[in-house]
Write a structure and sequence with these properties.
Shape: globular
Bound molecules: zinc ion
Largest sheet: 8 strands, mixed
Mean pLDDT: 95
Strand order of the largest sheet: 11-10-12-1-13-14-2-15
Length: 395
């Protein structure tokens, strides 16, 4: 058996006036998704458990068959996994942003999208000043770095992009162990005041990195591998680090596609082609396409419709054709991880539509793939991680 899963990130939406009351999924040209929904089943699934933050990482854990309530520990550990960092189970991992704070106000969560070289120079100096057996900084990309920290710690932190234009001090880490983190942030502030990198950046009129900001913490999640859980080999194709990290943690092959950008200029056809090649090697292939989510954040309705049409044509279509060449020994699943409605401009935790077709998945109602078809379906899965079990095992 071969299985393919296609995730158009954030594709689910609400009816939009500009589209004559249709959703982007309904307005897009999606003959392949519609074929799957009408020859197979269309249902509704809740990927974000009640009370959890509707991040793509949380929702994708569900999509991959793992209960986020049990396995999600935070964002930074997934980034560490994506980078292949070796972290002990008792170490905390924090995202360490380089930020611009001026007169106490969080002006820029990215320090002017500082270059990776500049970031690396700062991280090296942070390690000289603060590093030791229990504290280590790791260079990432641009302003996005990581800290591992071994200490008793139970803190609340805030993402810096959530407090732009606000006084930063009230959002510094609080809770047990927060004093150590605050001391590190304080030291970074003093070290960066007249740092060479910032002297140059100020001369060029760029935002300086005035401080580190620590958030997104967690310990490395201990996930049973996909082989252990389902006895099947998997691979994923994504441009997004968090999802790359999740894949590595469950033992999936992580396939890099040139030109996969995470936006509407992404190499759709390249992703489709990479999936087709992967189907020869592994049992389960997951293709994640970020573009519909980004267009939802930008409230760009036209671009969202186009992104969904392109995914149907260049990713779903070729994969479906490749599977059909297997005879009847295959199944395909299409679902967004969460909605990113253009009117809301961010993720919501609402259930999403899914469509599933293939071996022994009999069609019931001949309706196209949409939020409405899903809402009217009897097939409702309230714990997202159970959909994988259904997809792989239903008969
Ligand atoms: Zn997402």
């Amino acid at each position: 058996m071969k299985y393919a899963i296609i995730v158009p990130d954030g594709a689910a939406d609400l009816p939009i006036d500009e589209l004559g009351g249709k959703t982007p999924l309904q307005a897009a040209v999606t003959p392949n998704m519609d074929w799957i929904a009408s020859h197979g089943k269309c249902g509704q699934v809740r990927n974000v458990p009640q009370g959890m933050y509707p991040g793509s990482d949380v929702a994708l854990l569900s999509v991959m068959g793992y209960d986020p309530r049990q396995y999600y520990t935070g964002r930074a550990p997934l980034e560490a996994a994506a980078q292949g960092l070796k972290v002990d189970p008792d170490e905390w991992i924090f995202r360490c942003n380089l930020v611009t704070i001026i007169d106490g106000v969080m002006e820029d969560h990215s320090a002017g999208h500082i270059t990776t070289e500049e970031g690396a120079a700062i991280v090296a100096d942070l390690n000289k000043l603060l590093g030791g057996p229990n504290v280590k900084f790791f260079t990432g990309v641009s302003y996005r770095h990581l800290l591992t920290f071994r200490a008793n710690c139970d803190v609340t932190t805030t993402p810096p992009h959530d407090i732009l234009g606000k006084k930063a001090a009230p959002y510094l880490p609080t809770g047990a162990g927060a004093d150590l983190l605050r001391a590190m942030i304080d030291t970074s502030r003093r070290m960066l005041e007249n740092h060479d990198v910032n002297v140059v950046r100020r001369d060029l009129g760029e935002n300086p990195a005035t401080s580190i900001w620590l958030w997104g913490q967690g310990k490395m999640p201990q996930l049973p591998t996909f082989i252990e859980r389902f006895g099947l080999r998997g691979a994923s194709i994504t441009a997004v680090d968090l999802i790359r990290g999740l894949s590595k943690l469950i033992g999936w092959e992580s396939i890099e596609v040139p030109g996969a950008t995470g936006y509407i200029d992404t190499n759709y056809a390249g992703k489709g082609q990479a999936a087709i090649e992967a189907i020869d090697r592994v049992d389960v292939v997951l293709v994640h396409v970020e573009a519909p989510d980004e267009t939802g954040h930008n409230a760009d309705v036209k671009a969202k419709v186009q992104a969904i049409s392109d995914i149907d044509k260049y990713v779903v279509g070729p994969i479906l054709k490749r599977l059909q060449a297997e005879g009847d020994q295959w199944r395909i699943l299409v679902l967004p991880d969460h909605p990113t409605p253009c009117s809301v401009r961010t993720h919501t935790a609402e259930p999403v539509p899914f469509a599933i077709a293939g071996l022994r998945i009999a069609g019931v109602v001949q309706e196209p793939f949409s939020e409405t078809t899903a809402a009217n379906s009897d097939l409702k899965i309230s714990h997202g991680h159970e959909l994988m079990e259904f997809f792989l095992r239903a008969h």
